Amino acid sequence: MFRLDSVSKSFGTQTVLQPTSIEFQAGKSTVLIGPSGCGKSTLLRLLAGLLTPDSGRVHFEGVEMNPKNIVQMRHRMGYVIQDGGLFPHLTCAQNVGLMAAHLGWNSHRIRNRIEELSDLTRLPRPALDRYPAQISGGQRQRVGIMRALMLDPPVMLLDEPMGALDPLVRYDLQEDLLKIFRGLGKTAITVTHDMGEAGFFGDHVIMLGEGRIVQQGKLDEMIISPANEFVTRFVNAQRLPALSRPKESA
Amino acid sequence: MSIRTCVIIVLALGVVACEASHTPAWAQKVKVAVGSKAFTESVILGEMLSHLATDAGADVDHRAELGGTQILWQALVTGEIDAYVDYTGTIREEILADSARQEPAIESESDMRAMLRQKEVLMSERVGFNNTYALGMRRSVAGKLGIEKISDLRRHPQLELGFSDEFVERSDGWRPLKNKYGLPQTRIKVMDHNLAYRGLEKDSIQVADLYTTDPEIKYYDLFVLEDDRGFFPVYYAVVLMREDLPRRAPQIAEAMLKIEGLITPEEMSSMSARVRLDRRQEKLVAGEFLNSKLSMSLALPQEGRWAGFNEVIQRVLATTWEHLFLVLISLGLAIPTAIPLGILAARNEAIGQTILGVVGVIQTLPSMALLVFVMPLFALVGMGIGPAPAIMALFLYSLLPIVRGTYTGLKQIPAAIRESAEVLGLDPKARLKLVELPLALPSILSGIKTAAVINVGTATIGALIGAGGYGSPILTGIRLNDPSLILQGAVPAAVLALAVQYGFGIAEKRIVSPGLN
């Protein structure tokens, strides 16, 4: 689905992604994980064409990405960011239907698709005609996912999609999201720094550190046989309440 | 249709066309435009020139109360007006100031005349009076202290002096005067010229600057101190006339020049008194003077300045229309210019800083300077006086708020929103139209609102160049010290500004998405 050939990216003097080659398989769910500044978001933004690589090439569905074909390619990608990135001046339904309307779909077809998606994402119907500021954070995120799914793209790119949600809302949405991806057979690439989320979503997990891939494979492998000290530290940094409680002396 | 009918129709049309183009001889009057400055003496002299030209058969347009020497001079040079009265001192100091620096000193009136000739302007002989600065005191105070001449003031350092700010600043004003005479006084009160008379009367000041033809000199029985060292330059009134007028209409130019040597200082002063103190119309006062002095028989309408209620309403409606015309046209032009400039500025930082810098500098230009700058451009197409330059100035003043509103509105859009639009697959044009401009709309609207409110206030400058509007009654009201006239301009201007504010509030609710509140 995506192929990167020695792609690198710097901002000023700081290299955020060392030359990296990698392929993302169609139909699989991949998670990019690592600490802040490791280059995981940069990698996702390169895939979405929001950044152009300093060197190397990005291929999407076998075609090299360039400024001319990127607009068309994006119709085959859904992109979801933290808090949805919704347009505040449009109602939720208008947000979801904006691109389809711009492409000339008739209003009947748009409305049908939106209702279908609201069932799929379990967004209450009345929320559709509200503005983003009038609904909850979890609902906003569901609208963001609907918007990304509107044109039924084969690929979903998600940049810390749960980052702004409280644990309960997050738990429900994670379940729903996985069901949607599995049910529709989407290729999903998710950026997160949460090990639990990575394990839940990822058929394949890629850990990045300081601009390069440190280890990839199943999450279990990373936990059982970490590639180096960095992976060990990152894995151990995920604290569980029961484990951190100090032992009472007898 | 037969050929015969066709021929008849064509002939008939031809006859109608000939009738239309043939205007009878009595209607083909020579058009003459006279100008005057925004002070009473100048308006009276303008009316006098108008009477003389009308009597000689011209169709006269008096562009009264224009905003100052530079505007009148521009209007004269570019042919917007044919003649007006100015003063020799002003001609030397302001009109010929540039030439005077390069050429040998302008010694005499014939030097001035020669230099004006190079600019195709004729200068008449003196109208007869010298309206210069002078120092004045109450007659009783001057008598008691034994003061007759300015140099006598040296013996009385305790005296308090009240001067207009212009007199304090001018190169022929207080500081050089103090040096020339070695005057010891340091207590100067800077005050409005009209208030200085009252100050003298109440003895809160003892000496004030005067114009020698001020009617108040007589009214308050003031004593004018002799300028015994010849400090004050002379300001003899003279007519400035375009060289082509005598060629175009010799008998009319000749009639207008009957004003040469016609008016003594006392007569000028008493005419001003009749306008300013007795509240009579300039046209009437000028006409009566000509009737008695030149035994002319001008028909003069005997109407007072005090208009009836209906007339006031009509005048307010007329000035409202003129004012709205200035505001709406300038704003209507500024919006489609400034919004694209703001978009460009937001897109490209380097170009943006240049655009914001330039429109910012325009905003700081004083309105008078801007008018004097744009007038000659419009004069090329015969629109140097009237609404066009005022609209241009207002248009330029409107740019900054709208450009900045657009720029800020676009810049304030969060990066996440902008990227969401991009990554959705919208092309740049669609992003601008569907996402960025709607999100910037509140800021753009508030820029337009600011521009509109500023415009309503600034459009009063239209009066300076004969574009009418609320500035006209304000200008006349200030000149004649007539509060009711000032209110006829100021009150509707304030109401209009409030209405604009309110109107935009409603418009904002209607066109800005409720999601943005």
What is the topology?
The complex is a heterodimer of chains A (250) and B (517).
Chain A: E1 2-11, E2 14-24, E3 29-33, H1 40-47, E4 55-60, E5 63-64, H2 70-74, E6 77-81, H3 92-102, H4 107-120, H5 137-149, E7 155-159, H6 167-184, E8 187-192, H7 195-201, E9 204-209, E10 212-217, H8 219-224, H9 229-236, H10 241-244
Parallel strand pairs in A: 3-8, 3-9, 6-7, 7-8
Antiparallel strand pairs in A: 1-2, 1-4, 4-5, 9-10
Helix pairs in contact in A: 3-4, 3-5
Chain B: H1 3-21, E1 31-37, H2 40-55, E2 59-66, H3 69-77, E3 83-87, H4 88-95, H5 97-102, H6 109-118, E4 121-130, E5 133-138, H7 139-145, E6 161-163, H8 165-169, H9 174-181, E7 188-190, H10 193-202, E8 207-211, H11 216-219, E9 222-224, E10 236-242, H12 244-248, H13 250-256, H14 265-276, H15 282-293, H16 309-347, H17 349-364, H18 367-379, H19 387-411, H20 415-423, H21 428-458, H22 471-479, H23 483-511
Parallel strand pairs in B: 1-2, 6-7, 6-8
Antiparallel strand pairs in B: 3-10, 4-10, 5-8, 5-9
Helix pairs in contact in B: 2-13, 2-15, 3-18, 14-15, 16-17, 16-19, 16-21, 16-23, 17-19, 18-19, 19-21, 21-23, 22-23
Description of the structure:
The complex is a heterodimer of chains A (250) and B (517). In chain A, strands 6-7-8-3-9-10 form a 6-stranded mixed sheet, with helices on both faces. The radius of gyration of chain A is 19 Å and the shape is globular. Helices cover 38% and strands 25% of the residues of chain A. Chain A has 10 helices and 10 strands. The model of chain A has no long low-confidence stretch (mean pLDDT 89). Chain B has 517 residues and is an alpha/beta fold. Chain B contains 23 helices and 10 strands. In chain B, the strands form 3 sheets. In chain B, strands 7-6-8-5-9 form a 5-stranded mixed sheet. A 3-stranded antiparallel sheet of chain B has the order 3-10-4. A two-stranded parallel sheet of chain B has the order 1-2. In chain B, helix 2 (40-55) links the parallel strand 1 (31-37) and strand 2. In chain B, helix 16 (309-347) runs antiparallel to helix 21 and helix 17 packs antiparallel against helix 19. The longest helix of chain B has 39 residues, at 309-347. At the A-B interface, helix 2, strand 6 and helix 3 of A face helix 20 and helix 21 of B.
